[in-house]
Structure formats: C-alpha cells, structure tokens
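Quick illustration, no need to memorize.
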Amino acid sequence: MTETVTAPRFSRDRMVHGWLVVKGVSDAGDAAWTIALAWTAVQLASPAVAGLVVAAGTLPRAAVLLVGGAVADRFPVRRVLAGTTVARVLVLLVTLAIAVTAGESVALLAGAAIAFGLCDALFEPAAVTLGRQLVREDDLSPYAGASQTATRLGTMAGAAVGGGLVAVAGLAASAALNALTYLGVLAYLALALRVRFPLPRRGPAPMGRAIAEGFGHLRAFPATRILVVTLSGLNLAVGPALALGLPLRVRDTDWGAGTLGLLQALVGAGALGGGAVLIRWRPRRPAALGFTLLVLQGLAIAALGAPGIPAAAAACLTIGVTAGAASALLSAVFVRTVAPEFLGRLGSIQRLGDDCLMPAAMAGFGAVAAGASLATAFGLFGGLMSAFMIAARRRA
C-alpha cells in the first residue's frame, strides 16, 4: 500500500504518544478490575468456583474471536474500538448498579466476565490493525515497543492500586474506576485520534465466507502461514513455566512466597526494559533477531530447573527481557508482512491458536512435572521452544 499521508517521526508524534498514554491508563483500570473480580470471587465462592468465574470470559472470547477479525477487516478501526469501549462502559455501569443495589454475587461476576470476554473478541483484532494505520511502516517497531511499555506500566500500576481499592471500597469502586478510564479512551478516539493510513476494506459478505477467506489466505501464502503458526505458539512454553512451574519450584524448595513475588517481578521488569529498548533501536533484521531472542528464552526456561535462587533469578530476568523485546519486534513484523485487508482476520486466528492450545500446554507441563520431575518439564518445554524458534529463524 502506498503511503501518501505525511506523518511525523514516531519520536515527535504527539497524537500517537497521547493515545499510548490513554491506553496505558485504561490498562491500569483493567488490571485493577481484574484483581477486584478475582478477589471478590474468592470471597464469595470456593477456589474451584472462583477459578471458573475468573476464566468465564475465555470461552466466549474464543467463540467470537474469528468474528472479531472479520469485523476489524470490514469496518473503520475507530468505529470498532469506540463501539466495544462503549459496551465495556455499559457492562461496568450495570455491574456497579447491581453490586450497589442487590449486592455482589457469583452470577454477577460471571456475567461481567463473559461480557468482557465478548468485548475483547471484537476489540483485540481491531487493535492489531491500529498501529499500521497510525504510523509509517519504519516506525512500527518503535510503536510496538512503546505500546508494550505503556501497557506493562499501566498493568503494574493498576495491580498495585487494585488490591487496596477492592479491599477498602469493594467491587463497585473498581468498576467505577475502570469505567472512567474507558471514558478517557472514548474521548480520545472522538476528539484526537485520526487514522492516517486507512487499510483497504472488504465489501459486504456473509460472516462465514469472510472468516473462510482468512484461512484461505493462509493456505495461499506460505510465508504468512509460517509466521502466524509460529506466533501462535510463542506462549505455549513460557506460559506454563511461569504460571505453573515457577510456583511449584518455589514451593518444592521452600523459598517462600516473597521469593515467588521477586521472581515474577524480575520477569515483569525485564519485559518492560526489553520493550522499551525497541522504542529507539531499529534492528536491520527484526524477524531474525526476534526469533534469536526466543531461542534464548527457551534456554532460560530450561534453566529454571537449575539449583539456587540466583540461577532462577537470572533465568526469570532473561525470560522477561527476551519476551519484551521479541514480542515488540515480531508484532511489528506481523503487521508489515500480512496483507492489509486480512490483518484483522489473521490477527484473530493467531490469538485463537494461542487461546485454544494453552490449556493443553498447561496440562502437559503438569503431567510431565508429576510423572518425571519439574526440572524435566522445564527442560522439555524450554528445549522444544528453542528448537521451534531455531526452525523459525531459518525461514526469517
């Protein structure tokens, strides 16, 4: 696509900088809301039921995600983002009203989680296409790095505020706070954000045909197919290693909950730094570098089984840095590589693959840890990831 609109360099692009700030504040509200949802659930129900409540939005999101991709490729991005944001505000306001008038309940929490999952299914594919429509192609990596940095900062801040807020003022206060952040997003979309490089749009077509066209495009273009398949598997090793393996490691070695928090913080800090580096650095071969970093990430996952806290700390920091930098690099490569008219649909296919395969990956990691050893699970998952990324790098 020929870019005929003049846009400032990313470092001087005040409109995009403002959007990233607004989005980061909204991510803080989301983090506070997520903590409030989980905390309220465990107060009202058993751990098993609370887990189901927190995960209630996953299946509806997966069911609607492909529709969200087709919607993103058909309708203007600002309209889709604004519409889903309005829906989120309404969900939060209804939740707030019911919590205040009728009290908190498991049904209320599950309903809110499901509604948010449906909104995510429409919002996220459209958000994938946004950067390509705001900044020049050679600014996509800085945009991705800055976007990831803003999101991580917002999430960290929201998590820090969210626990205290729900403890002091309850679920209703967290809902009100998150609704206010979404109103900020709406205001910026309406008053300040303007698309500079509109993507080509498909004409009206049945939803099933539009979704099928996305899969057909994957079959017809091997390079795109390899990229989408590879990106769909990025979290299948690191997700179970951090969410399940690391707590088991800390428990088995009696390092204490404080050590677990420190190790998780090192992952977050490393990811923050890795993404921030990409704001100014523009590597010549971003795909090759991204996959090389993920080879190192696989080795770091395997190293989580090594004895001693220093080894675990170094592995967690390495996982964070490589995740932050690689995700920024490869998300920009994805946006540049995929045909513009299929960007939303292929983004949804990529996300769907990750969502659908993660439960199996979690179960597989747990089975290996129980049947062999935790160190074996770390080594197997980390080794497979490194091998997978070496193969991807050869094609980059």
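The domain at 10-191 is CATH 1.20.1250.20 (Growth Hormone; Chain: A;).
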